[in-house]
From TrEMBL:
Its EC number is 1.2.1.84. The lineage of its organism: Eukaryota, Fungi, Dikarya, Ascomycota, Pezizomycotina. InterPro entries: FAR, FAR_NAD-bd, NAD(P)-bd_dom_sf. It comes from Aspergillus keveii. Coiled coil: none annotated. It is an enzyme of class 1 (oxidoreductase). This is Fatty acyl-CoA reductase. Residues 21-283 form the Thioester reductase (TE) domain.
Length: 400
């Protein structure tokens, strides 16, 4: 099949799609909203807003100022208010009934990506809400696929080596069914004890969500997408789209002073696992068109693979010593100090190394059209240099 036939095939699929999108005001959710509304012939999008619709629009006006009017004018988006942590998702009864008869796919990007929140809070935000959404989606008459965004961090308890695109059991040798129940809506999250084998409580909560979502038999088909750390967009909604607060690697970079010692610690065999947000969105939407189920990875293998030392070397080329000294006199986000202290960056060269399997998305590299993984004229190194300059410029000019 030629490229034009492939494009026609996956875009036509969206002419029948009615998508419920959660987390639409976040970085990834906003990118998906843009693509569903303006780049694909999607029949309809229900965009779930946790607070008021006005608050959501004001946030999009800040994050996508040149695109939000076109999204609103597309006529495809129905904004609805709800809260995944409330009974019935906090949805209006009439709205829920319409969705029950219309929705064909659910994409769940809602999450609290904080790496400093405790396990109980992360379970409530990143596990219980996902299960509540699945339970509601299971009542939709036309739903064909439930897509949930997880994270490659869920496998951080592994000792290294190949990370496969499959569900891994909990690291405990003895099953803890009572602890697993802590991930169900309304349950007491304190029943699951923290496990330091995970890099963060966030990872432990996300892993439990995976295990509960993929329990057999599943009421509806489920796809778990595990992206690497998500970085700024290559092209859409616009180049470098994505707030710094939603880009974990920026906080990590702000933890390094970029000395020769830092570069030496970032051992050459440690890959810099990050993918642009618009690549992640395209990967997701192509899998939706393909009705993929199970687990898929979205890693740097689909974009460009760099080592941590290579990235830090580029940072040092882009930032003068005077600018760097000024940055470290500024107040930095708590997450930057967390990377530096709690997760022992002085021992980063001793951390395990993983090879991330990504073969279930390999076919996507050949596709063109609105969901091409990487724009044809994109230069990864130039993109990296531009985003580094922007990141440090924000710190120098605006602080945090």
């Amino acid at each position: 099949m030629d490229d034009s036939a492939n494009v026609i095939d996956y875009t036509r699929n969206y002419e029948r799609q009615v998508v419920l999108l959660t987390g639409a005001t976040g970085s990834l959710g906003g990118c998906l909203l843009y693509k569903l509304a303006l780049r694909l012939p999607t029949k309809k999008i229900y965009a779930l807003c946790r607070r008021s619709i006005g608050d959501a629009i004001r946030k999009w006006e800040s994050t996508m100022p040149q695109q939000i009017e076109d999204i609103l004018d597309s006529g495809k988006v129905e904004f609805i208010t709800g809260d995944l942590s409330k009974p019935g998702l906090g949805l209006d009864t009439a709205v829920c009934e319409r969705m029950r008869n219309e929705v064909t796919a659910v994409i769940n990007t809602a999450a609290n990506i904080s790496l400093v929140q405790d396990l109980e809070e992360s379970l409530q935000n990143n596990c219980q809400t996902a299960i509540a959404l699945l339970q509601t989606a299971s009542t939709f008459k036309k739903v064909q696929l439930f897509i949930h965004f997880s994270s490659l961090a869920v496998n951080s308890f592994l000792s290294g080596g190949l990370v496969e695109e499959r569900l891994y059991p909990a690291p405990d040798e003895i099953p803890n069914p009572e602890g697993d129940l802590a991930g169900l809506p309304g349950a007491d999250p304190s029943k699951l004890p923290p496990d330091d084998r995970y890099t963060w409580p966030y990872a432990q909560a996300k892993h439990l969500a995976e295990r509960l979502l993929l329990r057999q038999p599943s009421p509806i088909p489920v796809l778990i997408i595990r992206p690497s750390a998500i970085g700024p967009a290559t092209a859409e909604p616009f180049p470098l789209y994505g707030p710094d607060s939603a880009i974990p690697i920026h906080q990590m970079l702000l933890s390094f002073t970029l000395t020769d010692q830092d570069l030496e610690r970032m051992a050459m065999h440690h890959d810099f696992e990050e993918v642009p947000v618009d690549l992640v969105a395209n990967c997701c939407l192509l899998h939706l068109a393909n009705r993929t189920t199970g687990v898929v990875h979205c890693s740097s293998e689909l974009y460009v693979t760099r080592t941590g030392a290579e990235v830090l070397s580029t940072v040092r080329d882009c930032i003068t010593p005077v600018e760097l000294a000024e940055v470290f006199r500024k107040q930095r986000a708590a997450a930057a100090f967390m990377w530096q202290n709690k997760y022992r960056l002085d021992q980063i060269d001793q951390t395990p190394t993983w090879t991330v399997e990504c073969k279930r998305s390999d076919y996507q590299k050949q596709l063109t059209g609105p969901l091409a993984l990487v724009p044809a004229q994109h230069g990864p190194q130039q993109h990296l240099r531009r985003r580094i300059r922007k990141m440090y410029r924000v710190m120098l000019d605006g602080g945090q």
